[in-house]
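Before relying on records like the one below, remember that each one covers exactly one chain. Contacts with other chains, cofactors or solvent are not represented anywhere in the record.
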Amino acid sequence: QGPSALEVVFHEASHALANALEREGNTAEAEALFRKALDTERKEAQRGRLDGRAMALALGFGIPAGMISAVKHNTVFDYGSMTVAMVGLTLPNFVVAPALILVFAVKLDWFHVTYSDFWAVQFESIHFGLPHPEVLVLPAISLSLPYMARIARLTRSGMLDVIHQDYIKTARSKGLPERTVILRHALRGGILPVLS
């Protein structure tokens, strides 16, 4: 995926302005403008990667949780997953993020929360100034939790509506395996609230 048109225009305009300032003898201003342009590009690239990972996590865990919760309606899994979804919806990111850092980075030492170590610096120099992928895991989880909860609840409600439809009963009466009925027939209609 290449840069957007706005990013290209910003990049070209900042470099043209910096070159003009340098020709006029304002090298300090030109250097500051170059640094600002590079910093902006780096932040945009990092944010795009973070947003993509958060959405992938939300969809990857929210849809299966909602599906299983609908199939196992009124069971311990259903109540537990919907309770976790409500907690995920109500806790703000500024509470979740420090809790994740405290548990997974400080206590368990599974992740690094800064990229000041040697390997992260080496990774940045090789991969165009982007941080090490490990640095983005906890922020992606923190950002994805509210969306994951919404997607799970929407998938569950859509699947519950569809599971009791006549065409699902017909598919079951034809002798199709339950897995096929759920994944092929019920999921198609149950995922519509998530897609819309």
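The mean pLDDT is 79.
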